[in-house]
From TrEMBL:
<dbReference type="InterPro" id="IPR015421">
    <property type="entry name" value="PyrdxlP-dep_Trfase_major"/>
</dbReference>
<keyword id="KW-0663">Pyridoxal phosphate</keyword>
<keyword id="KW-0808">Transferase</keyword>
<protein>
    <submittedName>
        <fullName>Acetylornithine aminotransferase</fullName>
    </submittedName>
</protein>
<dbReference type="GO" id="GO:0042802">
    <property type="term" value="F:identical protein binding"/>
</dbReference>
<keyword id="KW-0032">Aminotransferase</keyword>
<comment type="similarity">
    <text>Belongs to the class-III pyridoxal-phosphate-dependent aminotransferase family.</text>
</comment>
<dbReference type="InterPro" id="IPR005814">
    <property type="entry name" value="Aminotrans_3"/>
</dbReference>
<dbReference type="GO" id="GO:0008483">
    <property type="term" value="F:transaminase activity"/>
</dbReference>
<dbReference type="InterPro" id="IPR015424">
    <property type="entry name" value="PyrdxlP-dep_Trfase"/>
</dbReference>
<dbReference type="GO" id="GO:0030170">
    <property type="term" value="F:pyridoxal phosphate binding"/>
</dbReference>
<dbReference type="Pfam" id="PF00202">
    <property type="entry name" value="Aminotran_3"/>
</dbReference>
<dbReference type="InterPro" id="IPR015422">
    <property type="entry name" value="PyrdxlP-dep_Trfase_small"/>
</dbReference>
<dbReference type="InterPro" id="IPR050103">
    <property type="entry name" value="Class-III_PLP-dep_AT"/>
</dbReference>
């Protein structure tokens, strides 16, 4: 019995060491990481350059408030703008994905003076007041969070978007690929319709890129496959490779003013050092291209193994939906094959590995999956 507030169902495994795409537990058992601690480990565990940047920063200065110049913030904003293809967008720094969405919704509301938010079924935007109200999961929306501002439309439904976004809408918030909802990729037509409707009605288009952003899909942002430009993009997870940091990229049409947004910890020295290290590594090691290449490699292997109902995703954001609950399959991958994976809903296995995943690690996963799928297949045939 511990004194922790018990909200997480956990595996009784304690990783005590990590390197690249591998983890070791307290008994020295080695695990291959196909999940990256839920899409967070972007450049690999304990990358030497990342460790060096953070150690140096820790020895120099870890924190001062946003009342002084922190040039690391400027370096991060410049590098992020360049690598993401949005050099003219401004950056607001915060600490998590939910907070990034909270600030994006506030900006949209300040900008338009409106309150109505259009969000999508099966979407997930975080657990703070505004973000959770825009999340389609009543079990995590407390009465105090519930508000009448949010309308949920079906995802990837062009007609619903055409009719459901009007000039009362302050924001349309959407994931380029729904993560928690099961790895559903937005179609080009859907995202282009959202862009056009926002242009017509004056609503602000927010692309929640917390899970599908930061190079994971083989482009910096997944919406870049569809050729649209959002007004606001939110990010977190991969941004700090484990150091808590979130951000909003903000189109030049938004005017900043002192006090409009703010945070104590957002943009602190350590978070920015982590953020800059991640962008440097992504660029120097071509990790976005690697995500595209390794994603294709994994997808090909999964297709060859077969036995699934649907294979979805882009780059290293992959969902394999089966026609049976995947809990046991995930446990077998973890305990028998020493492979970390994730799930989305009951029937979908979810892969969100580091963007630096190599062929050896991908092959280890494919071999284990093949063994387990053939064994499930044999059992079904024998029954
Ligand atoms: C798409 C998306 N938005 C927002 C969040 C919330 O991020 P955080 O847990 O950092 O608040 C998540 C977390 O899973 C997410 O997947």
């Amino acid at each position: 019995m511990s004194n922790l507030f018990d909200v997480y169902p956990i595996y009784d495994i304690e990783p005590v060491k990590a390197q690249g795409s591998y983890l070791w537990d307290q008994n020295g058992i080695k695990y291959t990481d196909l999940y990256g601690g839920h899409a967070v480990i972007s450049v690999g565990h304990c990358h030497p350059y990342y460790v060096e940047m953070l150690t140096k920063q820790m020895n120099a200065i870890s924190f001062y408030s946003n009342s002084v110049r922190i040039s690391l913030q400027e370096e991060l904003a410049e590098k992020l703008g360049k690598l993401s293809g949005y050099p003219d967008y401004k950056l607001f720094l915060c600490n998590s994905g939910a907070e990034a969405n909270e600030n994006a919704l506030k900006l949209a509301s300040f900008h338009t003076g409106r309150t109505k938010v259009v969000a999508f079924k099966k979407g997930f935007h975080g657990r703070t007041a505004g973000a959770v109200a825009a999340t389609d999961n009543p079990s995590i929306v407390a009465p105090v969070n519930y508000n009448r501002h949010v309308t949920f439309l079906p995802y990837n439904d062009v007609d619903a978007a055409e009719n459901g976004i009007d000039d009362e809408a302050c924001a349309v918030i959407v994931e380029g690929i729904q993560g928690v909802g099961g790895i559903h990729v937005a179609t080009d037509e859907f995202l282009q319709t959202l862009r056009r409707k926002c242009n017509e009605t004056g609503a602000v288009l927010i692309l929640d890129s917390v899970q599908c952003g930061y190079g994971r899909t083989g482009k910096f942002f997944s919406h870049q496959f569809s050729g649209i430009h959002p007004d606001l993009m939110t990010m977190a997870k991969g941004m700090g490779n484990g150091f808590p940091i979130g951000g909003v990229l903000i189109s030049p049409k938004f005017k900043a003013s002192y006090g409009l947004l703010g945070t104590t910890f957002g943009g602190n020295h350590l978070a920015c050092a982590a953020g800059v290290a991640v962008l440097d590594i992504m660029k120097n090691e071509n990790l976005i291209d690697n995500a595209a290449k390794m994603g294709e490699y994994l997808m090909e292997g999964i297709r060859r193994i077969g036995g699934y109902k649907e294979l979805r995703g882009r780059g290293l954001m992959i969902g394999i939906e089966y026609d049976f609950p995947v809990k046991e399959l995930r446990n077998k991958l973890l305990f028998d094959h020493k492979l970390f994976t994730g799930v989305a809903g009951a029937n979908t296995l979810r892969l969100l590995p580091s963007l630096a995943l190599g062929k050896t690690e991908a092959d280890a996963f494919l071999k284990a999956l093949e063994t387990e799928i053939s064994s499930i297949h044999e059992t079904t045939l024998n029954n």
